[in-house]
Automatic annotation (TrEMBL):
Keyword set, alphabetical order: Chaperone
Biased composition (Acidic residues): 14-29
Family, per entry: Belongs to the prefoldin subunit alpha family.
Organism: Antrodiella citrinella
Region (Disordered): 1-34
SUPFAM superfamilies, sorted: Prefoldin (SSF46579)
The UniProt record lists the keyword Chaperone: yes
UniProt-recorded name of the protein: Prefoldin subunit 3
GO cellular component, one term: prefoldin complex
Amino acid sequence: MVEFLKERQNGKSEDDDVEDDDDELEDDETEKKPLKTTFELNDTLYAEAELEDTDTVFLWLGANVMLSYKLPAAISLLRSKLEAAEASLTNVISDLEFLREQITVMEVNIARVYNWDVKKRREKRELEAREGGKGTAEKDSG
């Protein structure tokens, strides 16, 4: 369940990142103004840049792969990634709901088995007490 929770959180942040990138590219395409961006120089060091008249963007695809795209192609790629991420997030959320239901069912079943065991032990003690009482009464009369 912890893995599903982590996956849900990662899916939400991925959705936000892709949405931000998509919005930025759409603004750049429609307004043709300089594109302001932040890029990573090191793990903890970032720099800001302003790109003039951009019609090409470079997107990280993962596994250390970066490709060059024209703006319309980049926007369509980001939209398809966003749709896939939203679908994945929906699946993870439904899986989490199913797991919560199953946990509740298991807790109820455990309680039922425990109560059944308590009842059986009580019946056994009562039976032993009755048989023990009969045994002492027979010895006294004998």
